Recover the amino acids of this structure.
């Protein structure tokens, strides 16, 4: 019989019999309770995580942001544990006479860690106090006491492992699918130890379970994120009743880590963002600016490597002066584009340790190896040339990688999808512009052009063209979107279409979601093939949908692709590989 106290032999028999010493498992951080000058944790939490295949670590209640951020950088999922009431002053409320004991040591640390984990796209499970933490931190509201409205008992005297009331699950919710797979139940019997509940889940969540007296017993993300809160204590229930939720958390944490690891290997490029449109309001790219969908914080949270930031020039109507259309006092369109590029370069100079201008695909990969984000420059609307072909050489020297020939209205280059068919396609001047762009190694971008202009440019250009931010007309009948025939013609010439996130280009009515963006992407793949698609979000230019609302959610979009079983090589193509292939070909074909 083996000696149970011979720990060295046990170590040799487990850790050192093979390599590596242990298989990698998702690390789940669990917020620790606090009392009597001790950080402590009920065994049910960490044992349930361990039994579900995760590695539990306890997070002490520290409100130091440096400690919180470093903790989040080292875990794959977050479990918000139960405990005492929140101080209602954090919600801007005075305490109810029925308020229970608060835990001042926990409140601020857990509000901070929840918001920061949410920003980082970490999977989160909130239990009892934890569901209330989610509501407090992310825009919901907590009721301080339900005793005068409760019709069933929500604070049991029975053993914690004994269910004492039922909850009804919403169909198509995460919880419903979790328990459909394990027990085919839409009604669960749960234990209950609370006198507070989530009163209003807020805009980020929807209610997925209620008790028979109508109180919220579970909620989950409306933004297609891996975030779930339950009012009961699954860690105390028998394994067949409690373990499914912990297995869900561990599986989501594994998916999160898989996506993070993939982003370490793969370059992620958004081919179109309009952040300079906010320059007149004053922005700080190094802060998490609520006005912006793209900044250093959001790019880092989403593990996004690069974006093509454009100088957008609004198209004046006949009789309008361009200077009346822009916020900066400039003599004309060319000077305006130069001013925008100057301001982008100032942002890069101020953040040079973390951010660089890139002119070529090689620059992008070098910046990624050196741990820096990249901004590439583009022009949206050939109006920037102000009718002078020579300005293309000037902008080529500034480093632009593409120029969108027109915007919303015909210009002197071509007709717009929202224009008046002024030239019946590409103008004579436009033909010269396209030829000069080919010579200078600048990509021709046909987003915003009408069909006649599109086909003209496709015939004129000697190098493949791109549509930096367009979607599929077969799914949303809008003139800005490409027909299947256009898409096939584009692919035949080696070009690329980048699916965009503007609501009106994804759905005809209502607000689009990330699911709609995925439908457009997969339709484009079906029509064009995987080598001719990508993503051009149009962030800060009215792009952004629920589930892919800003640069921090780039990682979540990758998780959707992984869930659909896309191979890493194909995800790499979608996240810029195809676009950069065209960029390389165009730049290599220049003749200066």
């Amino acid at each position: 019989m083996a000696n149970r106290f011979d720990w060295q032999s046990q170590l040799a028999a487990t850790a050192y019999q093979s390599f590596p010493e242990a298989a990698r498992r998702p690390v789940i951080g669990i917020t620790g309770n606090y009392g009597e000058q001790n950080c402590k944790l009920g065994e049910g939490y960490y044992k349930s995580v361990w039994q579900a295949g995760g590695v539990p670590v306890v997070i002490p209640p520290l409100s130091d942001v440096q400690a919180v951020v470093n903790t989040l950088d080292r875990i794959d999922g977050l479990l918000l544990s139960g405990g005492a009431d929140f101080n209602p002053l954090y919600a801007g409320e005075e305490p109810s006479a029925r308020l229970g004991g608060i835990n001042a040591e926990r409140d601020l640390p857990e509000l901070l860690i929840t918001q920061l984990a949410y920003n980082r796209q970490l999977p989160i499970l909130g239990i009892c106090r934890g569901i209330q933490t989610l509501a407090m931190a992310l825009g919901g509201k907590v009721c301080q006491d339900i005793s005068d409205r409760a019709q069933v008992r929500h604070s049991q005297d029975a053993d914690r492992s004994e269910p004492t009331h039922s909850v009804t699950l919403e169909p198509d919710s995460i919880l419903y699918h979790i328990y459909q797979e394990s027990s085919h139940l839409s009604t669960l019997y749960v234990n209950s130890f609370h006198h507070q509940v989530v009163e209003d889940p807020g805009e980020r969540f929807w209610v997925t379970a209620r008790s028979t007296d109508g109180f919220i017993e579970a909620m989950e993300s409306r933004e297609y994120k891996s975030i779930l809160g339950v009012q009961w204590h699954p860690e105390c229930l028998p394994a067949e009743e409690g373990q499914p939720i912990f297995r869900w958390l561990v599986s989501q944490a594994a998916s999160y880590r898989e996506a993070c690891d993939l982003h370490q290997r793969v370059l992620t490029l958004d081919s179109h963002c309009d952040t300079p449109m906010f320059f007149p309001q004053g922005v700080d790219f190094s802060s998490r600016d609520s006005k912006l969908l793209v900044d250093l914080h959001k790019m880092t949270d989403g593990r996004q490597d690069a974006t093509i930031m454009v100088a957008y020039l609004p198209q004046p109507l006949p009789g309008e002066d361009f200077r009346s259309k822009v916020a900066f006092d400039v003599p004309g369109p060319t000077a305006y584009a130069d001013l925008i590029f100057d301001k982008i370069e100032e942002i890069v100079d101020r953040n040079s340790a973390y951010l660089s201008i890139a002119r070529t695909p090689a620059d992008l990969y070098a910046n990624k190896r050196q741990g820096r984000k990249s901004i590439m420059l583009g022009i949206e609307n050939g109006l920037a040339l102000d009718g002078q072909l020579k300005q293309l050489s000037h902008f080529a020297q500034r480093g632009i990688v593409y120029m969108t020939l027109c915007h919303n209205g015909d210009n002197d280059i071509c007709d717009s999808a929202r224009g008046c068919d002024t030239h019946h396609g590409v103008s004579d001047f436009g033909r010269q512009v396209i030829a000069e762009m080919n010579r200078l190694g600048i990509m021709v971008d046909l987003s915003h052009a009408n069909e006649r202009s599109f086909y003209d440019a496709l015939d004129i250009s000697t190098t493949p063209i791109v549509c930096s931010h367009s979607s599929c007309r077969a799914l949303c009948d809008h003139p800005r979107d490409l027909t299947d025939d256009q898409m096939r013609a584009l692919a035949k010439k080696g070009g690329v279409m980048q699916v965009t996130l503007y609501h009106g280009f994804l759905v005809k009515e209502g607000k689009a979601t990330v699911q709609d963006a995925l439908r457009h992407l997969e339709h484009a793949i079906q029509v064009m093939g995987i080598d001719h698609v990508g993503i051009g979000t149009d962030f800060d230019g009215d792009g952004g949908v629920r589930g892919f609302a800003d640069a921090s959610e780039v990682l979540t979009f990758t998780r959707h692709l992984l869930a659909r079983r896309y191979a890493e090589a194909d995800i790499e193509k979608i996240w810029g590989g195809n676009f950069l292939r065209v960029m390389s070909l165009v730049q290599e074909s220049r003749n200066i």
Notes: The radius of gyration is 27 Å. Residues 239-265 form the longest helix (27 residues).
